[in-house]
Amino acid sequence: MFLQRRRHLRAVKRRKLEHQREQKSEYDALLAKRVVERKAKVAAIKASHHKAA
Which domain of life is it from (predicted)? Predict the structure, then answer.
């Protein structure tokens, strides 16, 4: 009885960790995309100021 419960709790913990890893990778990808978009936006603004001056 005790071993089954321990095995179950380990399985739950393992699933939870896997889910967290997946969520973290998705979030990191989203952040990287936002950084690229922001850099492009800043570069476009700088380019437009450079043309105007």
Answer: Eukaryota
Over residues 39-52, the pLDDT tens digits come to: 999 999 998 887 76
Query: What pTM value is reported for the model?
Result: 0.67
Distance (Å, rounded) from C-alpha 27 to C-alpha 32?
9
Q: How far apart are CA 26 and CA 20, in angstroms?
A: 10
Helix (H) or strand (E) holding 42: helix 2-52
Domain coverage including residue 12 = 1-53
Number of domains in the chain: 1
